[in-house]
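Sat 14:20. Reprocessing the chain from the morning session after the first attempt stalled halfway. Input below, unchanged.
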Amino acid sequence: MKNVDEIRNSAEYINAFAEYIKTGDDAECRALLTDAITVSGTAGVPVPTVVEDRIRTAWDNDDIMRRVRKTYIKGNLKVGFELSATGAVEHTEGAAAPTEEVLNLGVVELVPKTLKKWITISDEVMDMKGSAFLDYIFDEIEYRIVKLAADKVVNDIVTAPTTATTSAASVANLTISSISVNDFINAVATLSDEARNPVIIMNKATYAAYKGLQNAAYYGVDPFDGMTVLFNNTLAAPSAASGNLAIVGDLDGVQCNFTNGDQPSFKYDDLSLAEKDLVKVVGRLPMAHGVTACGRFCVIKKSST
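Finished this time. Tokens:
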């Protein structure tokens, strides 16, 4: 008897899963799994190992998403964070007891929203079998969903308040009128001790501008101070009069909760464009996201004033 992983890695199961994706009928997948696992009545069927590895690789290949904190909990998720707290004290034996710690907590509620990407494909693509069909669909849709997830994380950071509330963690802001080799060093100075692995996120044009400063200094200074630079072009370019220029911080301060797992699901419409031999395919992925710790990020903002 084959075990579940062996079945999921078989050509028969890959072909059956491709047909399940097209039609929504999982009977053949369940029949193949029956001897190894009881699947009747479950919410879904296991993905082939090749698809599972592909999904994991897609998330890991995105420099932003592989660094955020991920959870897989159904429904809305409430995450506590520290608003303020008194520090530890040194106590001498026999001396008066130290003052009790004062701890103020806030709670961020992560509410899932659906990330979607839809495309039209030809009937010829629908005729593809097994791995060829799965590769085509995931290439076309999954990358865009992962990219959108990263864009949402960036937006969470740049729109977070500068003063924490009981329902929102805060980020620091550093406003500049023009770029300088000291910008990222000054940004790091605003972070808390808990920001242990800070990175820089910026537009590629911004990276080029800072490298230009480095070239002008004959490489005598590293404007990035040794930190890893990640790219996201939703942030402003230095040519803009104003905007969010860059982020410095530890991405562990963002949490993404995948309520139905991190595999996109697909819906098909093979009727509305049937006269053109086209099929609409909608990929969707529910995900909640937000900043869940204070002091982990600094947003460098460019201002014209």
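The chain has two domains: 1-46, 56-87+99-305.
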